[in-house]
Specification:
The protein is an alpha+beta fold and about 725 residues long. Helix content is about 25%, strand content about 35%. It contains 11 helices and 33 strands. The strands form 6 sheets. Strands 2, 3, 5, 13, 16, 18 and 19 form a 7-stranded mixed sheet that branches. Helix 9 (about 620-630) runs antiparallel to helix 10 and helix 10 runs antiparallel to helix 11. The chain is elongated and about 160 Å long.
Length: about 725
């Protein structure tokens, strides 16, 4: 009996050691909350709440961003020591570790630990538990693994033993038992009971329960691991709250989520300001329904990246996504950098407050019809209170230091705008929804926009759009209506409050534009020489004539988009060549075209380009070119002519050297002939004497030629040096 008690104490000690070991025993990793522990006590990683049923925390708040992430908050109540179990996709664990925030709103409550499944294979995880459930173990093999453990056994009514037995497992064996067909084998459970050893047939066991709570907990956790392994891409996360009594807690985290998108409807009225309606497209890609969640949509783009915190890190790098909507066809227009005193452009007026109130009232009426005709006053008051409370909660600082000691400080970076949905949102799993976020009259002026690279013949119908909605607008498509008729599609980039931007939505078939090249010229405006280098400046003049025909019944305001070549040195000249505004890649010129009229609009640009030519002693064609250049100053021409005179002296000496070198070459060849003839001619003959006399005369001439050549080479070097020095110091303007 003493050994049994000792054995039981060993099991309990082993279990406590495993619990204190945390991740090593349960093959989970743990995040423990910092804080002082009571003196003389050890706080386990997994508290006694682990033995209780897990508490469910539904999603209560969702904040979606344009950077591919969402901030989720789960809220609920826990009692005493409690455990909250959550399930996440394996790819989200890194973001979870990076961003999870935990809050216990009681004075004494605290967060003791967060544990999550490792990436170990399931068979390795199951082996770590006290009862190994690998390979689909039988009842008898499970009992054999728990030998020595106390159990409570309930037998069938037809058993030949008492209905309930309490004892410790000795083991399971096979015994031969008598039956109608003779002796057969049956599995028998051997128990050590208070009255001694007992044997029970397994097929007579109706129920068996482990008396040791640690073993019972191990079995339950092993079964949970098996259950969660059905989806190998999901991992379990357990959060342990320690405290007393019932209290509110919440869990927040940032994980990957589809960006929320916007689409707009723009109604162009015959009279009055255009009306803009904006819808947010939100998606619930999770496996959990969103029931009555508070939702906010943030139009800012916080920097978000992925970092592997789940595995050992060797290299870290951000994951960068390509820019959204980069390949869409509809043209978009950059913001204006500069505008020349508006050039007669009338200001775009914001809509009247009364019209905004009418739009807001219309929106509320739509919500009333949707909700079954509730009392408008009560609904309006409730929605105001709801929006005000939600806005106030979102503006509050995140107080994480109440229960978890802060180890760092943070400051806000950047600005953003948030759209607060005024009523709770319910959205089923794997569902998407359209939520209205904008219902406003906005500012706008109708224009036609011509860009030869977009449409060569016709301009596009467009609008000089002013964001007078009072909030930034996200990029997105715009469906344009003329009154109640579809007029076309457009697209707008991110737009700040009161910022203006052009949009185009259709082809203006009632107007034609034909650009033609005008009188393009170039002329040299300046020639000068500095230290042997001749500089010229040439002015290039380009004209582009836009022939415009307006066949419409109304006057059109036409914006001509002309290529921005300021970086190439082009500037506009002339009265008509003053652009209305400058964008990143174009200048825009405004032209008012009367109805049923044709006109031409000429844009003139000039660019100054310079060249430089180094004067050398090689050829005189370059020097003669500048002498004959009409734009060259007379002082430069005189100096260039003097250079030609110096060069002519050098040229004469070089010609004399060439004549002497050719004569020496001729004599050398003739002497070779004479020497060959002397070897073949008898010495006593007259011809031999003539050959010898000629050879002697050539040797005398050769000697004089070499003396003259040496003198001429010295004179040539002096002449060349004089020319080089003259050219190197030639300066004139």
């Amino acid at each position: 009996m003493k050994s049994i008690k000792n054995n039981r104490k060993w099991w309990v000690a082993a279990a406590l050691t495993a619990v204190l070991g945390g991740a090593a025993f349960f093959t989970q990793q743990a995040i423990t909350a910092p804080g002082d522990q009571p003196a003389g006590k050890t706080q386990p990683v997994v508290a006694q709440g682990d033995l209780q049923q897990a508490v469910s925390l539904p999603i209560s708040q969702v904040i979606l961003f344009n950077s591919g992430v969402g901030h989720f908050t789960r809220s609920g109540e826990v009692t005493d020591h409690a455990r909250v179990d959550l399930t996440f996709q394996e790819d989200d664990i890194n973001d979870l570790i990076k961003s999870m925030t935990l809050r216990d709103y009681s004075e004494t409550g605290r967060i003791s630990a967060v544990t999550y499944d490792s990436r170990d294979p399931i068979d390795r995880t199951l082996k770590s538990f006290a009862i190994d459930l690998n390979n689909n173990p039988t009842f008898s093999s499970i009992l054999n693994q728990a030998r020595g453990e106390p159990v409570e056994v309930t037998l069938l009514n037809n058993a030949n033993q008492p209905g309930n037995l309490v004892g410790k497992i000795v083991g399971v064996e096979k015994q031969k038992v008598a039956s109608k067909d003779g002796a057969t084998e049956a599995e028998v459970l051997n128990l050590w009971c208070a009255e001694g050893m007992r044997s029970v047939k397994l097929n007579e066991v109706q129920r068996l329960r482990f008396s040791n709570p640690v073993i019972e907990n191990e079995m339950r956790r092993a079964l949970e691991t098996l259950s969660q392994s059905h989806d190998s891409q999901k991992k379990a996360v357990s959060i342990y709250f320690d405290g007393e009594g019932k209290r509110k807690v919440d869990v927040g985290y940032v994980i990957e989520n589809p960006i929320w998108k916007t689409s707009y409807r723009l109604v162009l009225k015959k009279d009055g300001s255009p009306f803009l309606q904006g819808w947010a497209v939100v998606e619930n890609p999770t496996d959990e329904d969103w029931e009555g969640v508070s939702m906010a949509l943030v139009s800012g783009r916080p920097i978000s990246f992925q970092m592997d915190l789940y595995n050992p890190l060797y290299i870290t790098r951000p994951v960068v996504e390509p820019e959204l909507f980069a390949g869409l066809r509809p043209p978009t227009y950059d913001r204006v950098f500069a505008r020349e005193n508006n050039n007669g452009l009338p200001p775009i007026n914001s809509p009247q407050p009364a019209m905004e109130e009418m739009a807001k009232k219309s929106m509320q009426e739509q919500q009333l019809r949707f909700r079954g005709g509730a009392d408008p006053k009560e609904l309006k008051q409730a929605e105001k209170m709801y929006a005000a409370d939600l806005a106030a909660n979102l503006r509050k600082d995140l107080d994480l230091g109440r229960n978890v000691q802060s180890v760092a400080t943070a400051a806000a970076l950047g600005d953003y705008h948030q759209y607060i949905i005024e009523h709770p949102v319910s959205l089923g799993r794997q569902k998407s929804a359209l939520l209205p976020i904008v219902n406003k009259d906005v500012g706008g002026q109708r224009v036609s926009i011509y860009n030869q690279s977009v449409q060569a013949k016709h301009p596009l119908l467009g609008l000089r759009f002013k964001n007078s909605s009072g909030m930034p607008l996200m990029q997105g498509p715009i469906t344009v209506f003329e009154g109640s008729v579809y007029a076309g599609d457009s697209r707008i980039l991110d737009l700040q409050k009161d910022e203006e931007r052009l949009i185009s939505y259709a082809v203006d078939l009632g107007m034609e534009v034909s650009p033609k090249r005008g009188n393009n010229t170039s002329k040299i405006t300046e020639v000068k020489a500095v230290k042997g280098v001749v500089y010229t400046k040439t002015l290039f003049r380009e004209e582009l004539v836009y022939n415009i025909s307006n066949r419409n019944d109304k006057e059109r305001t036409l914006l001509l988009e002309h290529a921005n070549r300021k970086d190439q040195g082009f500037t506009f000249v002339g009265e008509n060549s003053k652009p209305l505004e400058e964008a990143n890649d174009v200048f825009r010129f405004q032209v008012s075209v009367p109805a049923k009229k044709d006109l031409s609009y000429t844009i003139v640009e000039e660019r100054s380009a310079g060249t430089s030519v180094q004067l050398t002693n090689n050829a005189d064609d370059t020097i003669r070119y500048f002498i004959n250049l009409r734009e060259a100053p007379e002082a430069l021409k005189l100096k260039l002519k003097e250079a030609l005179t110096i060069k002519s002296t050098w040229d004469i000496v070089r010609q004399d050297i060439q004549v002497a070198e050719r004569r020496i070459e001729t004599i050398t060849r003739d002497q070779d002939r004479l020497r060959k003839n002397l070897r073949e001619t008898p010495q006593e003959s007259k011809l031999y004497k003539d050959y010898l006399k000629t050879l002697e005369d050539q040797e005398a001439e050769m000697k004089k030629l070499h003396e003259d050549l040496k003198a001429m080479q010295a004179k040539e070097a002096t002449s060349r040096k004089a020319l080089d020095s003259y050219l190197a110091n030639l300066s004139a303007e």
